Amino acid sequence: MKKLLITGFDPFGGESINPSWEAVKLIPDIIGDYEVHKMEIPTVFNKAFEVLMEKAEEIKPDVIISVGQAGGRRGITPERVGINLMDASIPDNEGNKINDKAIIENGENAYFTTLNVKKMMEAIKEIGLPASVSLSAGAFVCNNVLYLLLDKYKNTEVKAGFIHVPFIPSQLENKKNKEILPSMELMDIAKGLEAAIEVL
Ligand code: PCA
After folding, report:
1. For a disulfide at 82, which of 32, 49, 124, 147, Cβ 3.0-4.6 Å?
2. pLDDT tens figures, 102-115
């Protein structure tokens, strides 16, 4: 069997839950040809990637997918590109607020994911959930992980990518603009991720 390493993040930005990790926990341990290894990573610049790498060295996955929360998005959004930039609007979970800084000094400006994001998007839509391919993972910790993964595994057989997921309904309760903010049921997020993994 092949191996998939899939990660979710811990809560950040004042939230008490991060739907990415909650949903990753719910997906089956075997999907298609893949044995699924799950782990939670911290919402901390560079450290998230380091923790992920320790696990990756141990299990030697064929595919790595990192999943993160993108509050305000309506659908599940596979990311197409990671950019060489850290530019945060809030501090990470260790208080770092990094702005206008390269992730890798003199590194490539950007890398495209090595996952077939359109196929993944179609698979998610196929089960009746909103999905679209995103052209920006932002410039916070999610993009940081994506860029570092794509740099690490460039010119190798290991495929890597990122999927952003919406808020879940319970996260909207205390928000000012809750009437207009979109969300998705946790179980649907998990099903969407599973559908995307089925077409790896
Ligand atoms: N989302 C953040 C970091 C952790 C998470 O779940 C982001 O989009 O960068």
Report:
1. 147
2. 999 999 999 999 99
Please spell the DSSP secondary structure of the chain, one letter per residue. -EEEEEEEEPP-TT-S--HHHHHHHHS-SEETTEEEEEEEE-SSTTHHHHHHHHHHHHH--SEEEEEEE-TT--SBEEB-EEES-B--SS--TTS----SB-SSTT--SEEE-SS-HHHHHHHHHHTT--B--BS---SSHHHHHHHHHHHHTTTSS-EEEEEEEPPPGGGGTT-TTTTT-----HHHHHHHHHHHHHT-
CA separation for the pair 138, 90 (Å, rounded): 12
What does pTM read for this prediction? Answer: 0.98
**Does the beta carbon of 114 lie inside 6 Å of ligand 1?**
no
* Nearest CA, atom 8, ligand 1: 142
Is 157 a catalytic site residue? Answer: no
Of 79, 94, 173, 198, the active-site residue reads 79
pLDDT tens across 136-152, in order? 999 999 999 999 999 99
Handedness of CA 119, 158, 23, 199 (dihedral sign): positive
